[in-house]
Amino acid sequence: MTRDELERALANLPFRLLRRLGRSIAGPPALRMGKRRLMHTIMAGAEANIARVEATIRTHQAEQQALAAVPASGGGASSEHKPGKPADLRALLEGIGVPEPRPFVPDDWQMEAVEALERGDVIVSVPTGSGKTYVAVEATRRAMHEDRTVVYTSPLKALSNTKYTEFCKIFGPEFVGIITGDRRDNPTAPILIMTTEILRNLLYDAAGGEIDVRLDTLGLVIIDESQFLGDSERGVVWEETIIFCPSQARLLLLSASIGNPHELAAWLTSIRPTPCHLVRHQHRSVPLRAGYLHPNGKLTPLFRTVTMPPSPSQAVLHPEAKRLFTMFEEDTLYTRRSG
Question: What is the pTM of this model?
Fold first, then answer.
């Protein structure tokens, strides 16, 4: 490779590769150089490091040729992933976006959960994105129709704020209040959004004879992210909330990751005046896809398959993800040693 060819090839390299080459030649000072100065540094040291420089250039050129050879996706079967072949980025991103609007029809498990609340407490254990919110909203509508107070709890103030905004759009701001450590808006509303710790404290006060926030008319308590029952530090808050919950109120526990839902349902049945019904639904309506985003901005499938492997034993990393992992490790180790 002549000097002119080398200079043209370096000009076409991404900045991350130039910086990597410059750092291998000039050390940490290269991290503070711009593109022009990096090229000058690499050219000055190219003779002593020609093998490394040419290898980097050839690898980049091969990658660009491989990308150019991938046919553009025309939709349909042409972009489908073929078994045995690593998934490409187009297959990973295909179909992602806002779906076309269509009439909503609740699933059988959703109606089962709502109707089971007429008879007792309910645990809903379904994958993320399956439609737990519909159950909460429909149960809230029915409780309001009976003029009962509804409390919706979440583990974080940020989640409570999000749910407050969502419920205000559905039911109207005059019917929704929020109580967290930072705010107390419309606390006499029939629907109250709060953190689980706030509800536990209110139930403490009620047990001591101090009735507040319409707990005497409480008809439904929705506990979101109820897997926190198993948390070593905060789990006691969820447990006490359930134990102190008024007997006239129905409990609706929502989670995507309860490890022992049958045991939890049996415990609730043993301490509450009504039986607890477990609703489990394992089909994921929105399949999970895993990608790896390198700090240089490159995105690639994490696994050879488009969707998540069914078990860890079947997980095989995508070749490009492996390469980016290795590159990241090398860059990180070099930075630590240089620092």
Answer: 0.66
